[in-house]
Specification:
Largest sheet: 6 strands, antiparallel, barrel
Radius of gyration: 31 Å
Strand content: 25-35%
Helix content: 10-25%
Distance between the termini: 118 Å
Order of helices and strands: HEHEEEHHEEEEHEEEEHEEE
Number of helices: 6
Strand order of the largest sheet: 3-4-7-6-5-8
Structural class: alpha+beta
Length: 417
């Protein structure tokens, strides 16, 4: 039988050993906790950066595709286009259609913002014109005067009508929306423009009503161009005006769903700005409010939008290649490379623009992370790496991701007038 255990001979931890073990364990716990905290912080920072990168990339792709579509089924410059019939500024309603160009670039034209101003940033604004609602040209049968308006009758049993899925007032008006522009190419190839009042669907005779604010020219004795009442074989399409700019939208009712997001990072979301896309009416200006329901948040936390133009400086003669020049102005001060060309002349903002000579757009979009994560600035004067979120340009600083692309304006290809 085993003898009973004698307690006076049992071994245990001394008080010193216990204190050493507790102290060592405490150091290990602190190290593990610090490592976990740093790992979590690093993950959050990189997650915010990844989110900014993805958001900026998606927004930039949208911008790039819309830039490439500028001038599609429209005119590079209605004031100089030799195919336009009846252009008369004195009788056309003022607005974007009366001054139609593929693009209007306003250098530094986005709304001012304290944070951006403190970082010496003045994002551009651009208005693009073209057929963005549909890629179809719709055959028409008749153009007639109806009281103080015009009616353009469409062929109901045509391929474009079927491909666009038009079978009701709603679907017809989704393409030919009120206050948008319309372009008509008559049977002789001449171009006419009008402003849409409404569109009416009928399975036998759908039609689009045009306002008389831009009078259509009809063929008459002594005229060299004009529409006939019977215009079977002519084509019509919508002309939209799309604006991109950078501005705060915290107080915009259409974006109330972002209210919670604005409260998450107190102090750094107050002056946040976004890249916003919206559609304008044919009688708007570049500063007008967008059509209700057309504004979209394209890229969050956008801090800069910069646009440059590649233009034909010299059109050239037979056997001589044209000369291309890249223009990039800074806040309306002047253009690079010491060129004497006027940015406004090619940006569609002057009285006599030469926008038809634009061959490409160099677009640059910069977005920041949601929260600051850098103690100091990093800007070499030519590239933007961080922006200051503190008062008057002070820290802390948020990292920036920049996207850039040269976009060819294919709809200007071959334009030599």
């Amino acid at each position: 039988m085993r003898p009973p255990l004698r307690y006076d001979r049992a071994r245990g931890f001394t008080l010193v050993e216990l204190m050493v073990a507790l102290t060592g364990g405490l150091f290990v716990a602190v190290a593990v906790f610090s490592l976990a905290r740093e790992g979590t912080t690093f993950h959050q920072r990189e997650s915010r950066l990844a989110t900014a990168t993805f958001s900026g990339l998606v927004g930039f792709q949208r911008l790039r595709l819309d830039l490439a579509r500028a001038g599609f089924l429209s005119s590079p410059n209605v004031r100089s286009d030799p195919s336009v019939c009846g252009y008369a500024p004195a009788t056309w309603a003022d607005g974007l259609l009366e001054q139609l160009t593929s693009l209007k670039v306003v250098d530094g034209g986005s709304a001012t913002n304290p944070t951006l101003t403190a970082n010496n940033l003045a994002p551009d604004r651009v208005v693009l014109a073209g057929s963005f609602a549909s890629g179809e040209q719709f055959p028409i049968t008749t153009v007639e005067v109806s009281g103080t308006t015009y009616r353009v009758y469409l062929q109901p049993n045509s391929g474009p009508i079927a491909r666009a899925g038009i079978s009701s007032n709603e679907t017809l008006q989704a393409v030919f929306g009120t206050d948008r522009g319309m372009r008509i190419i008559d049977r002789t190839g001449r171009t006419h423009f009008g402003i849409i009042s409404t569109a009416v669907w009928s399975a036998t005779a759908p039609y689009v009503v045009l306002k008389d604010s831009i009078p259509l020219t009809f063929r008459a004795s002594g005229t060299t161009c004009g529409l006939h009442v019977n215009e079977v074989g002519a084509l019509a399409n919508v002309v939209n005006f799309i604006r991109y700019d950078v501005r705060p939208i915290a107080a915009t009712a259409a974006y109330d769903q972002l209210d919670d997001a604005y409260a998450v990072v107190p102090g750094f979301d107050t002056d946040r700005t976004e890249l916003v896309r919206g559609e304008l009416t044919a009688t708007s200006t570049v500063d007008s409010a967008a059509i209700a329901g057309t504004e979209e948040l394209v890229a969050e936390y956008t801090v800069d939008l910069d646009l440059g133009l590649t233009v034909v400086d010299t059109l050239g003669t037979s056997g001589v290649d044209p000369v291309l020049t890249h223009l990039r102005c800074t806040n309306g001060v002047g253009c690079e490379a010491g060129t004497s060309l006027s940015f406004g002349d090619f940006g569609g903002t002057s009285a006599t623009p030469a926008t038809q000579r634009v061959r490409g757009v160099r677009a640059r979009l910069a977005v920041r992370t949601r929260a600051p994560d850098r103690p100091g600035p990093h800007d070499d004067g030519t590239r933007l790496y961080r922006v200051a979120l503190g008062a008057a340009g002070a820290g802390p600083y948020a990292r920036v991701r920049t996207f850039q692309a040269d976009v060819a304006l294919r709809n200007h290809s071959g334009v030599t007038w």
